[in-house]
Structure formats: structure tokens, C-alpha cells
Amino acid sequence: MSLKEFTKEIFTRYGLTEDDINIYLVYLRVPRATISEAYITLSEDHPDLTLEKVEEITKKLDEKGFVKIIPGLVERVIPLEPYFELFTKESEGFRNKRCSISGSIKSF
């Protein structure tokens, strides 16, 4: 499994769709971008994506703590990096798996 596939798998566990992930990645690459800049960045490769959809997804990402919308004359979006929360949840799953494997080995 490639790193890109693994990253998508982790984000989908937290309720993000492929469009959500693509938009979040734009904000990670272009900090302080506007919603329209994110739309322009993605519109060439994703012609079915609309500005309204990018705005809707950005608000969803803001509610989930992945980005922060900064109000002003021109609204900007800054990416937040919820790595600690993701790491904690992923490492908990790993520890649980390790314990179950360890328990099955001891039963031999």
C-alpha cells in the first residue's frame, strides 16, 4: 500500500470523502488560501467540482477541526494539522491489535 493510499484510508476513517481530502490537501499546500483559490486549483482536474461544493466542504472541514476559516474582507482558510488526534486514535488501534495477537500467541 502506497503512502497516498494509506493517507486516504486514514482520512476516510474520520468521515472524509475523496473530495474532502483533495480540498484539505490544497489548503495544506497553499496556507491562507481563499475558497476560490482552492476551487481554481482543483477545477482543472475535477471539472464536476463547483465553487459552492468547495465552500460547503471547507465549512465541513472547519467544523471537524481540519481547517480554520479566518474572517475578514477576504476570508482565508488556514490548515490545522490534527495529527495528534489522528496519531492517538491510530496508535490505540495498533495497541489493541498487538494485544490480541499477543494473547493468541500466549494461548499456544
Fold blueprint:
Layout: H1 3-13, H2 18-29, H3 35-43, H4 51-64, E1 67-70, E2 76-79, H5 83-106
Antiparallel strand pairs: 1-2
Helix pairs in contact: 2-3, 2-4, 3-4
Report what the structure shows.
65% of the residues lie in helices and 7% in strands. It has 108 residues and is mainly alpha-helical. It has one domain (3-81): Arc Repressor Mutant, subunit A. It has a two-stranded antiparallel ribbon. Strand 1 and strand 2 (76-79) form a beta hairpin. It is elongated.
Brief overview:
By secondary structure, the chain is mainly alpha-helical.
Structural class: mainly alpha
Question: Helicity level, as a percent range?
Answer: 55-70%
CATH superfamily: Winged helix-like DNA-binding domain superfamily/Winged helix DNA-binding domain
Mean pLDDT across residues: 83
Q: Count of DSSP E strands?
A: 2
Residues in β-strands, percent: 5-15%
Q: Label the CATH architecture.
A: Orthogonal Bundle
List its salient traits:
single chain, 108 residues, mainly alpha, Arc Repressor Mutant, subunit A, two-stranded antiparallel ribbon
